[in-house]
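Hello,

Our lab assistant flagged a job as stuck in the queue for most of the afternoon. It eventually completed. Since we weren't sure the result was trustworthy after the delay, we are filing this so someone can double-check. Below is the sequence as submitted and the structure that was eventually returned. Let us know if re-running is recommended.
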Amino acid sequence: MKKNEKKSFRDMISRLEEITELLESNKIELEDSIQLYEEGIAISTDCITSLKEAELKITELKNKLADISQEESAK
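-- returned structure --
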C-alpha cells in the first residue's frame, strides 16, 4: 500500500487488535514491544481522525437534509 493511501477503518482496527494480542502475549522482546506500541499509537491517531471526519460528514449531511426540509415546508 502506498504511503499516502489510507487504510480502511476496519483494517486499522484489525491491526490494533493484532498489536494488542502481541503485546499481551508477553512473548516478544522489549524493543519489539516499543515498536508495536508506537505503531499502535499512530494507528489510533489515524482512527480518531477518521472518526472525526465521519462525524463531520454526517453533521453536514444532516444539515443539508434539514435545509431541504425547511425549503419544502416553505413552499
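-- support follow-up --
The delay was a queue issue, not a problem with the job. The result is valid. The chain has a mean pLDDT of 92. The CA atoms of residues 56 and 62 lie 10 Å apart.
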